[in-house]
Structure prediction request, 339 residues.
Amino acid sequence: MPVRMKDIAAELGVSVMTVSKALRNEGRISTATRDRVLQKIKELNYQPNLLARSLVSGRSFLIGLIVPDLMHPFFAALAKFLSGHLRAQGYAVAISSSEESAEIERHEIATFLARGVDALVLASTQRSANAAIFKRIEEQGVPYVLADRMIPGLKAHFIGSDDRAIGLIATEHLIERGYRRIAHIQRPGISTGASRLQGYKAALKRHRRASPSELIATAASADAHGEQCGFEAMQRLLALKRRPDAVFCYNDVIAYGALKAILDAGLRAPSDVGLVGVANLASLTFWDASPIAVTTVDQGIGTLAELTSQLLLRLVQKQDRVAPQRILLPPKLIVRSTS
Prediction:
């Protein structure tokens, strides 16, 4: 016969409400009492009845996360860290990939809403604040947080990198290293790409450097096919009559492809071409694809996940009214072998 919450309470001589508070990590009970309850739960291998818990609380204890590409190590890391933080608070995370498709994203949001998720985290592919799906989310009263990607004009919670600062410090670093003809491989059509391009141009302007359009190459993908797109974009830059002597890449995946093109051309980094990426993927123990340590800009993905989980809990538990927040995380340059 399965162990019930009342059995835990009887064993410890406390109320069922006290056991419930300890499980939810909510309410006013002492640390000692909470520890006793959690220890007894472990000893008796108590498994909460999630359906009953949902009926009593009116919550599903499920958070929906939609990212553009689960194969991308940045978003895989976000899912991993976010799940860890929320699991510790009794919440599960359901994860889906939009495949960089606004239509698929809308379908996945509708599916999560139908399943009664308590909140949503979106690294969104939507291009407009007027997208009907946001109105639908709000009409259903489900709180949501935009992570990594901002949607201009949308009054929503946002937590992500200061992308303009990323472009600025990456380009400033290459200028300080003495490079003269600095290119950029961009990822157009999303807020992160637009802001990093702005930072790149701002740094060149600050140092009275030209930013000819020929030095800005486009990568069609920065995710599943990002390396190949970075490789091809770098090949185009190297084929210029006056090739660049440095390149700032939208992210590390593109940078790894660009580095391969540099090496395949018989050139060396950093002596022939300096290179900077974004994301610090080499710090993730489950993904490091480069034969040469790439200089990068760290986005603080662990902090991003932690702050997002904290905000989600405030929104879901309705501890207070939270006005839309815009939190920009300061980037950090990580100098390695390619600059």
About this structure: The chain has three domains: 5-48, 57-161+301-331, 163-299.
